Amino acid sequence: MDAPDVDGEQLELTLGPLYLVVVDDRVNGPLTGRPTRHYRSPPQTLDDARCLATLLLDRGSELDGDGPWRRPLAGGQRHVAIVLAPSSRLG
Fold first, then answer.
1. pLDDT tens column, 10-52
2. Is residue 24 situated within a structural domain?
3. Who's near 61: CB < 8 A, 6+ residues apart?
4. Hey, CA dihedral for 53, 58, 60, 64, is it positive or negative?
5. In a domain, 35, yes or no
6. How many whole angstroms separate alpha carbon 43 and alpha carbon 58?
7. pLDDT digits over 41-89, tens only?
8. How many domains does the structure of the chain reveal?
């Protein structure tokens, strides 16, 4: 009989509200040669959302306040916010 897959994925049940990380890279198109970009993460716990936001903002420490937060980019700014996932609003 094979040993259980310890490193494999497991079904995870998350209780409580879930959050989305919303990212907007707002840039000057003619200056940078690229368009403004938008991203919404999959629903996740608040701790995971704050960790992702910290990485996207290239911060060395925890985020201050409740956001949204901004970070300069070449030719513009990155805006990052954490919002309650739509399915979490129903409860």
1. 666 667 899 999 999 998 878 778 888 999 999 999 999 999 9
2. yes
3. 54
4. negative
5. yes
6. 21
7. 999 999 999 999 999 999 888 898 888 999 998 889 999 999 999 987 6
8. 1
